[in-house]
Design brief:
The protein is an alpha/beta fold. Helix content is 40%, strand content 8%. The protein has two domains: 66 residues; 314 residues, Leucine Aminopeptidase, subunit E, domain 1 (3-Layer(aba) Sandwich), CATH 3.40.220. The longest helix is centred in the N-terminal third of the chain and has 31 residues. The radius of gyration is 29 Å and the shape is elongated.
């Protein structure tokens, strides 16, 4: 590495580090003074014992032993303060990126599992130096993108939902079911690494996250550098997907979540920030009876401005990986955590689902156009919000159907296919309900035959 991120155990003197130079100098002076006084006590003890001086309250042995111990220790402590080195060697985002930069001509080695400790230590350095204090949605996007450039896998995208000119006219259109199929999955933790071996297709996974890109089983924000540890017992789809690349997972939580990224920044002005108290705190959109009407009106008016993050991911621990897999993080209203007092949230749920699926389909089209249809794009679709967040199956169905009808022609033109995925192929789950109601056929998992 071009710079060293020092761990706590690498330097004994790091334990005595004092950042402020004035405080450090005062500490040295005080400890030296204590040492000198203690050493004088040794001299005093000798004088009492051999010179016949009056001992006063202290006996010669007490002065000699006490001063003999305290004096050298104080002098040594002062020396340690002077030599103290900070374990927090990285102070800025640029220094962090330099420390984790590439070490060979083919790219860099940050994605090795062994490098997770370096990533976490570096993020703790940044947190110590308050690098994450100034939060801003655009800053979060810029810093995350620049950091992800280290991997040289491709660009990070921030797809928006985009608007549908005539939503009502779509109701009577017929769905081209040849663009879709329903399949079973045993979990994204195995699917994502396998997809990286399939060089015939580009794979994009829709991942259930929070609106601040964090993965938390309850309303809260994982600490910087602790995304992996905080999610180790969470077996839901979102954490399992992001945990496939531990180093990147930590970067997402630090540079997006803790710098103020908000998928609904331009959708819900009344909701506030994800890092402040309010309806969308911690990325959990929890309306109540006092604000549900306003939040619904804002979402319906601004759903096209929802902005997500889609990042490429690849890891050396994925055996036989040939190319990056894209993870598109999305979220839904946390109805299951909301105190609604009987208020209706159907419209909010519908437009949140519409925004999600529109962005997913548009991202598929964009990726296909970027590489001029050399590889078909496979979108791995799920039902974000259909689990513990309590969004109804029919509301998710409406959002998927409207988005699919709006985008099906564009997807067909550039060879984008949508694979609806349900855990073990269960039709009673939300995504299974969508497939059943829209008469989407069953099919084998695309790319698995390449393994």
């Amino acid at each position: 590495m071009s710079n060293s991120i020092t761990s706590c155990t690498e330097s004994f003197f790091s334990k005595f580090y004092i950042e402020n130079p004035t405080t450090k100098k005062i500490g040295e002076i005080i400890t030296v003074a204590i040492g000198v006084i203690a050493m004088l006590a040794v001299v005093g003890g000798l004088g009492i014992h051999y010179g016949g001086l009056q001992p006063g309250a202290l006996k010669p042995l007490q002065l000699f032993v006490g001063g003999g111990i305290v004096g050298p220790l104080a002098i040594f402590f002062a020396y340690c303060i002077g030599k103290g080195e900070s374990i927090y060697s990285v102070k800025t985002f640029d220094e962090f990126r330099e420390a984790l930069g590439g070490t060979n001509d083919t790219g860099n080695v940050i994605d090795d599992p062994e490098d997770l400790d370096y990533v976490q230590d570096g993020l703790k350095d940044l947190e110590h130096h308050k690098a994450f204090t100034h939060k801003n949605h655009e800053t979060a996007k810029a810093e995350f993108s620049k950091t992800m450039d280290l991997f040289k896998w491709g660009d990070v995208d921030y797809p928006c939902s985009g608007e549908i000119e005539d939503l009502e006219s779509l109701e009577n259109q017929e769905l081209n079911t040849s663009l879709f199929h329903f399949s079973a999955t045993n979990g994204v933790q195995g699917d994502i690494p396998r997809s990286s071996k399939d060089t015939k297709n580009i794979h994009v996974y829709q991942v259930a996250s929070q609106y601040n890109a964090a993965e938390a089983p309850n309303p809260g924000t994982p600490p910087i550098g602790e995304a992996m540890d905080s999610s180790k017992n969470d077996k839901t789809q979102g954490p399992l997907a992001q945990r496939t690349n531990p180093a990147v997972f930590e970067l997402v939580t630090a540079f997006l979540t803790h710098l103020g990224f908000n998928m609904l920044e331009h959708v819900l002005p009344s909701a506030g920030k994800t890092y402040q108290k309010g309806p969308i705190q911690h990325g959990y959109l929890c309306p109540d009876s006092t604000n549900i009407e306003l939040l619904t009106e804002e979402f319906k008016a601004n759903y096209s401005k929802a902005e997500y993050v889609c990042y490429p991911s690849q890891s050396s621990c994925w055996n036989g990986a040939e190319q990056p897999v894209y993870l598109l993080l999305q979220a839904a209203p946390a109805i299951g955590y909301a105190n609604l007092g009987g208020a209706n949230t159907d419209e909010l749920q519908k437009y949140a689902a519409l925004a999600n699926y529109l962005a997913l389909f548009r991202q598929g089209v964009a990726l296909a156009e970027e590489q001029e249809k050399e590889q078909p794009v496979v979108l791995h679709a799920t039902a974000v919000g259909g689990g513990v967040f309590g969004n109804s199956q029919d509301n998710l169905l409406w959002g998927f159907k409207m988005a699919a009808l709006a985008m099906q022609e564009e997807m067909a033109q550039v060879n984008v296919h949508v694979q609806l995925e349900s855990y073990q192929g269960k039709r009673d789950e939300a995504i299974g309900h969508i497939a059943q109601e829209l008469k989407i056929p069953n099919g084998d998992r695309i790319g698995d035959s390449q393994q």
